[in-house]
Design goal:
Elements: H1 11-27, H2 29-34, H3 40-56, H4 63-98, H5 109-132, H6 135-149, H7 164-187, H8 193-218, H9 220-257, H10 265-279, H11 281-285
Helix pairs in contact: 1-3, 1-6, 1-8, 3-4, 3-8, 4-5, 4-6, 7-8, 8-9, 9-10
């Protein structure tokens, strides 16, 4: 990581360096994806960081061009996310099954889950490969190359680099506001609490990425923010994984449990474990509440 003093530097310098890193990852990914190299996750993260920068530092970019790019990034991230989420789900369920006593694993649970997730993953990869050959993706790559050659900055990007503090602070306020709303909702038993927690998770990522962008200027100060938000992301990310797993287990458990030579007991047990995990979130969030 390159570090520098703020003297003579502008927001353009800070943002350009960070955005260039994300653009390079995304632009170099198609060949690796075709070869099924393990780049789905880093590519998706680069897309997320780029989108976050467009949001948090929105007034630094041409509004229309930024909005068009974000729409296409949302589409591409969605396709990558289908495969990535299945990888996470499979690993989570494999670990949960391995932790159960043998007498509680009734029927071919592991193999049934592997077949189901494998079939969904195959479909997900087919959609990615189809997208790679589409005019829409080629247009996206053209846009990204154009951005890498010259970012569509506004005059606001010429502000001094230490102006980054304004953007990081604003992003942090949004996290704290959403965390407070989620905490109050959980305390009141509001069924919408999970939705609010998910919103806090997204805001936390944006704050984290804004601090990453500031790290060449702030050094350890930025690293401290990144670490704290990473810890929050781990808590809320684990919660989201449990939400996805619970929904999957309910759907698949009902179908698989009715099959010949299958039994729904273990799927129900795993479902109950996920529900218990979800109930722990208010306690886990306490250290992060403003």
């Amino acid at each position: 990581m390159v570090t520098y003093d703020s003297d003579g530097k502008t927001l353009r310098d800070l943002v350009s360096a960070y955005v260039a890193e994300q653009l390079t990852v995304i632009i170099e990914s198609p060949g690796l994806l075709r070869a099924r190299e393990p780049v789905v996750h880093p590519t998706r993260v680069a897309v997320r960081r780029l989108r976050s920068t467009l949001r948090v530092f929105g007034d630094l970019f041409d509004v229309a061009r930024s909005a068009r790019l974000e729409d296409e990034l949302v589409w591409w991230a969605g396709l990558l996310g289908e495969v990535r989420d299945l990888d996470i789900l499979e690993k989570r369920l494999e670990e949960a099954i391995a932790a159960l006593p043998a007498e509680l694993v009734v029927g071919p649970v592991s193999s049934a889950l592997q077949r189901e997730i494998g079939a969904r993953r195959k479909t997900g990869w087919e959609e990615i490969e189809s997208a790679l050959d589409s005019e829409r993706f080629h247009a996206l790559m053209g846009t990204l190359h154009g951005w890498r050659a010259e970012l569509p900055f506004t005059e606001a990007a010429d502000a001094p680099a230490d102006r980054v503090a304004h953007y990081v602070k604003k992003a942090n306020k949004k996290v704290e506001k959403r965390l407070a709303a989620a905490g109050q909702a959980y305390a009141a038993g509001d069924p919408g609490a999970d939705h609010l927690a998910h919103g806090a998770r997204k805001a936390g990522k944006r704050h984290r990425y804004a601090a990453e962008l500031a790290e060449p200027l702030w050094g350890k100060k930025a690293a401290k923010i990144v670490k704290r938000r990473k810890n929050l992301q781990d808590v809320l990310g684990g919660h989201q994984d449990a939400v996805v797993s619970e929904a999957f287990l309910r759907d698949f458990g009902i179908r698989a449990g009715a099959r010949r030579d299958h039994n729904g007991f273990t799927y129900g047990l795993l479902f109950a474990q996920e529900r218990a995990e979800l109930a722990r979130l208010p306690e886990q969030l306490a250290p992060f509440l403003p």
